[in-house]
Specification:
The chain is built from four helices and twelve strands. It is α+β, with helices and mostly antiparallel strands.
């Protein structure tokens, strides 16, 4: 995965030096927006399942954004209620319980100014929204989304749509999936491993 960081500072189009912290940018320019472009290779259901420890339907119930220790970016830990487990490697978390998901991006107030960081092809999760997520991580109750927006499907009205718009092989082939179809695709991909 390649990381490309684009900084949009106030309304300035200038390129800040790589070593500048968000605190420095806030002091110089006021409100800061940081767009991060991560490039992920196109992923099929098989590839998403292969790189996931857990595939689950969740509802996001809490978020806590924090400034990184080096003050160059923001990340958010989301708390999500587990509604359904579609696939798990090892012991699955309990349905109805909570899991935590760490993501790059989020919004904080720094020295009285808004700092908004987002991944360009992976919108920040919204509180109260339902998703089907292909989650990785080292185990335990804290997960990540290793395929970025390709591994996240927003659920609205019983239909799931991949949130990624770039390299979104699944979204291009099947713009919206019923939850039953998505479950069938995950089950079939898991059985091919």
């Amino acid at each position: 995965m390649r990381h490309i960081i684009l900084l949009l500072v106030a309304l300035s189009l200038g390129t800040p030096e790589a070593q500048e912290t968000l605190r420095t940018l806030v002091r110089q320019h006021g409100h800061v927006t940081q767009a991060i472009q991560n490039e992920y290779p196109p992923a099929t259901f098989g590839e998403l399942v292969k790189h996931s420890n857990l595939v689950a339907r969740v509802v996001v119930i809490k978020e806590r954004a924090v400034l990184s220790p080096d003050e160059t970016t923001v990340s958010t830990r989301y708390t999500a209620q587990l509604l359904d487990v579609m696939h798990a490697r090892g012991r699955a978390p309990v349905t109805g319980g909570n899991i935590e998901i760490d993501r790059l991006g989020g919004t904080i107030i720094l020295e009285g100014k808004t700092v908004n960081v987002y991944e360009s092809d992976f919108p920040n999760f919204e509180l109260g929204d339902e998703y089907i997520l292909f989650l990785g991580g080292s185990g335990g109750q804290v997960y990540d989304v290793p395929a970025g927006g390709q591994g996240a499907f927003k659920v609205v009205g019983g239909l799931a749509q991949q949130v990624s718009r770039n390299n979104a092989v699944i979204r291009q082939q099947i713009p919206q999936l019923s939850l039953e179809r998505l479950r069938a695709e995950v089950t079939a991909a898991a059985s091919r491993k």
